[in-house]
Amino acid sequence: MSASPSALGDVTPQRMAFDEPLPLQSGAQLPAYELTYETYGTLNAERSNAVLVCHALNASHHAAGTYEGDPKSLGWWDNLIGPGKPLDTRRFFVLCVNNPGSCFGSTGPMSLDPATGQPWGSRFPVVTVEDWVDAQARLLDRLGITRLAAVIGGSLGGMQALSWTLRHPDRVAHCAAIATAPSLSAQNIAFNEVARRAIITDPDFHGGDFYAHGVVPRQGLAVARMIGHITYLSDDAMATKFGRALRSGALGYGFGVDFEIESYLRYQGDKFSGYFDANSYLLITRALDYFDPARATGGDLAAALAPATARFLLVSFTTDWRFSPQRSREIVQALISNRRAVTYAEVDAPQGHDAFLMDHPHYHGVVRAWFNRIAQELAS
């Protein structure tokens, strides 16, 4: 077997079962449930060096390392997490939790409903960013971690990181919110709705209970992924990678695949529909739509963020039009209004929203320096 392509090496997922129901923002509750998670590094004797990583829409608890040395199993943020990397596992105990409602091990729509013995399917309750944060907090309680050295996330993960500072302000020392927003714009909600309609109108969806029919709404899920993928890339990135290049070198004068970009999107959609759950996609995009801390303060973001006591890092990317730098600056201004300590970096990167997953020197340099300061604080 070849050596792992990750500096962290091979990792093993863990599971934690909870018998006490989880109250949800909707007023419903999730009965007995399980959370799948991974940890990297060593928790110090004081239990003060824990860093929680929050995952985005289609990611999972597998943020770093590999499974049995398989390079295809590399964690989604492996370029950021590991020994000697910006989030250095020689200094920090890093953990990442798969959120309830997802489809990578934690309780979700594919799991069996204890009341019926059948998959939850359409009956799985709507979950929110706040619900995920509360579930993560329960896991930390079980692990004996009362206060996080930091919480970090990108995109939807950044929303969770922000929510941590509001729901559990005394438990978070530092917060890094990368390529995120204080709420979705109308345009972003619109993209999510079109993606959801593609799934819901697929004949194989069966109102969310397709498991019983032995089918998967693959076409709808593939189209949803294609829509989403377009929003993750910048126009410049698409132009550089694909331009108007033709798949076969000539026009086909039909409605098959003529352009390379069409081939790429179909490939991404087909691949996604083979491993992601349609009900999970609906739930997670709805959680994105619903996140809006300022709703409770009449739209006043500064008032909404007032409970936060953490020190913050905000990073945005110039070509990210889905979570634009302007949205990060809104958060920065609101925090400054509350006299909170904020570091802000606007990184010139061509990849669009996906830049937060890339190995960009400026971006990683900022994150490395920020975590170095936290490590020095812990050592002092």
From TrEMBL:
Q: According to its UniProt record, where is this protein located?
A: Cytoplasm
Signal peptide span: none
Q: What is its EC number?
A: 2.3.1.46
- What GO molecular function annotations does the UniProt record carry, in alphabetical order? homoserine O-acetyltransferase activity; homoserine O-succinyltransferase activity
Site keyed Important for acyl-CoA specificity: positions: R322
Domain called AB hydrolase-1: residue spans: 49-357
Gene Ontology terms describing biological process: homoserine metabolic process; methionine biosynthetic process
Keywords attached to this entry: Acyltransferase, Amino-acid biosynthesis, Cytoplasm, Methionine biosynthesis, Transferase
Entry's Gene Ontology cellular component terms: cytoplasm
Sequence positions that bind substrate: R225, D354
What role is this protein assigned? Transfers a succinyl group from succinyl-CoA to L-homoserine, forming succinyl-L-homoserine.
**Quaternary structure note:** Homodimer.
HAMAP family linked: MetX_acyltransf
Protein name, UniProt field: Homoserine O-succinyltransferase
